[in-house]
Amino acid sequence: MERTPVTSSYLEAIGYSYDARVLEVEFRAGGVYQYDGVPENRYEALMRARSKGRYFRAQIKDRFPTRKVG
Fold first, then answer.
1. Parallel, antiparallel, or unpaired for β 32-36 and 66-68?
2. H or E element: which one contains 36?
3. Residue 49: is it exposed, middle or buried by C-beta count within 10 angstroms (0-12/13-18/19+)?
4. Residue 46 — φ and ψ, nearest 5°?
């Protein structure tokens, strides 16, 4: 999945599959994780968020099935 670099002290890059509804997050501290079943509007809100790390922790982390992919 192609990821887009983001400005964040917590997140390095973010990707999204509209067909599969899978969010892929690369963390600055290392590791790439996929989050299953993330609605398109949450992904878009994450990309618009002033603080992507804060939005991610509040609206995505621990709310969707997760797997480490890198």
1. antiparallel
2. strand 32-36
3. middle
4. -60, -45
Q: What is the spatial distance between Cα 17 and Cα 37, in angstroms, rounded to a whole number?
A: 10
> pTM, whole model, 2 decimals?
0.95
Asked if residue 34 lies in contact with residue 64, where contact means CB atoms within 8 angstroms, the answer is: no
CB-CB contact of 56 with 11 (8 Å): yes
DSSP 8-state symbol, 51? S
What are the start-end ranges of the H helices in 1-70?
A: 40-48, 52-59
pLDDT digits (tens, 9 = 90+) for 10-69: 999 999 999 999 999 999 999 999 999 999 999 999 999 999 999 999 999 999 999 999
Token readout for 10 is 């917590």
Residue 37 falls in which region: left (phi positive, over 0), alpha (psi -120 to 50) or beta: left
